[in-house]
Design brief:
Strand content: 25-35%
Distance between the termini: 36 Å
Radius of gyration: 16 Å
Number of helices: 3
Number of domains: 1
Number of strands: 12
CATH topology: Protein Transport Mog1p, Chain A
Oligomer: single chain
Amino acid sequence: MTDDSRPVGPRDISDVDPGEVLERTNLGSMIVPAIPGLQVQVQADQKTGVITQVTFALPEGAVQVQPYAAPRSGGLWEDVRAQLNSSINAAGGLVEEREGPFGIELVAQVKDDNGALQPARFVGVEGVRWFVRGVFIGGAARDPESARALEDAFREVIIVRGDTALPVGAPLPLRMPNASPEPVPAPPDPFVRGPEITETR
């Protein structure tokens, strides 16, 4: 995909000034912003330090962010939306597509562990050989004003795809700052992970 076809962000590392990167936190394939008041929560494997989930949190809500390997030709978000639609409906939730600030997005009501419906909003941005999914939850899933600061944080994400060959849909490897790189295997259903905030390390 060309730069002109992408939203303002997330961005590829090739589009970023090196000095800008130094002001952020490097998680391997994803470099995240340092924004006052923004909590960056991670779930990591205790043995390897490999991050399995990243969440940006503010009092008004949160967004879970996950980068994946994608084909150079693009089009992965369309496939992911179809998978999410099917999965949410099969689980007894509600979902509809609409146009949003990142293009076509999914607005859903998904069941939590107690069977109650909770709001969730799924967005996707495609770059060159990468795809980033964001899941907005809490107030940020239903109120545009509450979502604005988290949308800005999502746009500030920088992706470092690297040259490693990965299957389409495999999560890009994430790690704790200063940890050694470790491969992250693709789960059986990488795109249909629940939109819950997990315990932080």
